[in-house]
TrEMBL record:
Name of the protein in question: Guanine nucleotide-binding protein alpha subunit
UniProt-listed CDD domains: G-alpha
Primary location group: membrane
Residues holding GTP: 47-52, 185-191, 210-214, 279-282, 348
Disordered: annotated segments: 1-20
Single Gene Ontology BP annotation: adenylate cyclase-modulating G protein-coupled receptor signaling pathway
Gene expressing this chain: GPA-1
Record bears the keyword Hydrolase: yes
Family: Belongs to the G-alpha family.
Subunit structure: G proteins are composed of 3 units; alpha, beta and gamma. The alpha chain contains the guanine nucleotide binding site.
Gene Ontology terms: cellular component: cytoplasm; heterotrimeric G-protein complex
Length: 373
């Protein structure tokens, strides 16, 4: 699947490098002209939510999505559904092999439906989900063995949009289906290029760049490192019990913290402020009540606090915030004189939370421009 560029158009892989070169040329020119534009970079590892935040910016402060752009997302959403059901089906078959309890034994008809849907999803050409497919998918999804497999989602590289799309698959299969803004925020497309959007807020002009976060994408980031006002570093709070898509032996939170450290140390960012978006707070709130933080190797010293759910959640969140703060301080010589860092817990899917967060970002950046002069 290709990436989405600033105008929301798919970009073929082979066009990437030429576009990168062109973008670098353009940026060099524009940097000279755009002295009054705040340049912000969205950085972070894969699936941390950068593109979702980018989409929220387009929705809140830019032109949003026209009907044609919304429609362009239908194949992406259908592909997300095929991918999710295939991962669940194959994951369930694997679990069944090692299981004697019968928990992972699908109903016989769903074994056949699963095979059929996985084959359709593997096809080279786009096969829209029609009423027939949606019926089969809904049956597979409701199978108790598939639901049991879903509870092991952290081991399966399942996209976070799985439940949202699979539990309402009949809606996506209607012939007159047009994706909603909420659908688009949930849709998962791995970014493979660079995208940008310009917007004005409170008298300031911002230019925000979105990049791909998986390892093989990160070499492209360097093109953007000059003249950056602030880095929005995204880290998914919920990834502490998951391993990387591109390296199944590496914990995602460990990777994110190492990445944060290396970005902080980059000489281009000596005077660049950092806005750390601790994202997927909605998933984290539920997860942390059943999966202890100390399953993650960098959180081994975490001791859960006693008390009600809210207390447990806020205690765990504060612990992670402290970890990021420590990394920032450890890698910032002359603390408070050259750059600043703010931490926010975010849910990129929620427009209200994002609007509130962007207001704070705006205020902090303006204040820091004055105080760091
Ligand atoms: N529940 C939940 N899902 C989120 C949140 N933020 C992002 N997602 C979902 O997580 C998936 C990945 O998000 P992306 O925005 O594509 O991640 P990315 O950082 O751009 O990933 P790369 O392009 O690979 O670097 C999408 O399906 C999003 O809808 C969040 O706060 N909560
Ligand atoms: Mg992305």
């Amino acid at each position: 699947m290709g990436s989405l560029c600033s105008k929301g158009q798919p970009v073929a892989q082979e066009e990437d490098e030429e576009r990168e070169r062109e973008l670098t040329r353009q940026l060099k020119q524009e940097d000279r002209i755009e002295k009054n534009v705040y340049k912000l970079l969205l950085l972070g590892s894969g699936e941390s939510g950068k593109s979702t935040i980018f989409k929220q910016i387009k929705l809140l402060y830019n032109t949003g999505f026209g009907v044609e752009e919304l429609k362009n997302y239908t194949p992406v959403i259908h592909a997300n559904v095929y991918q999710a059901i295939k991962i669940l089906y194959e994951g369930c078959l694997d679990l069944q092999k090692k299981d004697v309890s019968g928990e992972y034994t699908m109903r016989r008809e769903n074994m056949e439906h699963g095979k059929r849907i996985a084959e359709i999803g593997d096809g080279v050409d786009y096969h829209p989900i029609g009423l027939l497919e949606s019926d089969l998918i809904a049956q597979i999804w409701s199978d108790p063995a598939i639901q049991a497999t879903y509870r092991k989602a952290n081991e399966l590289q399942l996209p976070d949009c799985t439940e949202y799309f699979l539990s309402g698959v009949d809606r996506l299969a209607k012939p007159d289906y047009i994706p909603t803004e909420e659908d688009i925020l949930h849709a998962r497309v791995r970014t493979t290029g660079i995208a940008d959007v310009v917007f004005k807020h409170d008298g300031h002009t911002y230019r925000v760049f979105d990049v791909g976060g998986q390892r093989n994408e990160r070499r492209k980031w360097l093109h953007l490192f000059d003249g950056v006002k602030a880095v929005i570093f995204c880290a998914a709070l919920s990834e502490y019990d998951q391993n990387l898509f591109e390296d199944e032996g590496k914990n995602r939170m460990v990777e994110t913290m190492e990445l944060f450290e290396s970005v902080l140390r980059h000489p281009s960012f000596e005077k660049t402020s950092f806005l750390v978006f601790l994202n997927k707070y909605d998933i984290f709130r539920k997860k942390v009540l059943s999966v202890p933080l100390n399953v993650c190797e960098v959180f081994r010293d975490y001791n859960e606090v006693q008390g009600d759910q809210e207390r447990k959640i806020s205690h765990a969140l504060q612990y992670i915030k402290n970890k990021f703060d420590e990394i920032y301080k450890r890698n910032t010589p002359g603390l408070g004189t050259q750059r600043l860092c703010w931490l926010f817990e975010t849910t990129a899917l929620d427009p209200r939370i994002m609007k509130y967060t962007f207001e704070l970002v705006d205020k902090n950046l303006v204040v820091s421009s004055i105080s760091l002069l």
